């Protein structure tokens, strides 16, 4: 959500390609356009990539409306529009299956410092009820969301974009199933957040600006107690300065697969990086018409297709979606929804 953060501070199906080998045994794969500037119904602030239990893929800024989310796969349609609070600005989306076996969704509302819960899907596929699950004026945004499915606990990241970053320009909060919001820490600019498949590790991106330039991008790792909502043993999981020399490209959304690999959106580079559980760079996914990559998700019928979103290069007023078919590992979110379903 770097594009949206800067603004706040200032106020058809794709097919897989053959991998090409590059130095360091890192493979490069090429995504294919799925929604183009001619076919998309999403606006430039497309973000919040998410998958439901059926493998459908969703994103925010549907119909060029910051208070609306929509389905992008298997077909485009509106899922929810916050008419009660039209000033809402949704960014992150996560799906869950409640104790009744009914699907619900959580939305990160950047402007109102809250997480919205959508409940009770009707026959038309839309949610019948919306409510504020947790809210706190001390939350910087939130920007992105991650969920520990075993406990239903949500983790929220957010940022304040300034020319010179300081501790406190990023934060991490958690929201439990009762709606209690608890602050877990302050950082430099935080953005992407994700939980490992065994729910014992939490990943959080951290970036630093100096003199108006982005000079550092790292992914931090913490030991996670998802039941208690506590983190410990902070460490650097990846430093992009030493990993591949891309410290100036922000980390945006992050998603894990069932094998513990992280798929990381690299804003401004037109790439997604795939990183092993040990912090080794495994592959790049090169996009054809998205440079400002905001988020991604593993979705589709088997939960293995990589969908990537961001503003279209050929028309930055619109949001594009690209797809890679042929990924071998199922997404963590999709797999957990199958278990709970």
Task: Please outline the helices and strands.
Blueprint (H helix, E strand, L loop, with lengths): L1 H9 L9 E3 L3 E5 L1 E4 L14 E2 L5 E4 L7 E6 L3 E5 L8 E8 L5 E7 L4 E8 L5 E9 L8 E5 L4 E7 L10 E6 L5 E7 L1 E7 L5 E10 L2 E13 L4 E10 H4 L7 E6 L5 E5 L4 E5 L5 E6 L3 E10 L5 E8 L6 E6 L7 H9 L1
Parallel strand pairs: 2-23
Antiparallel strand pairs: 1-2, 3-26, 4-5, 5-6, 6-7, 8-9, 9-10, 10-11, 12-13, 13-14, 14-15, 16-17, 17-18, 18-19, 20-21, 21-22, 22-23, 24-25, 25-26
Briefly say what this structure is:
This protein is mostly beta strands. It has helices at residues 2-10, 240-243, 332-340, and strands at residues 20-22, 26-30, 32-35, 50-51, 57-60, 68-73, 77-81, 90-97, 103-109, 114-121, 127-135, 144-148, 153-159, 170-175, 181-187, 189-195, 201-210, 213-225, 230-239, 251-256, 262-266, 271-275, 281-286, 290-299, 305-312, 319-324.
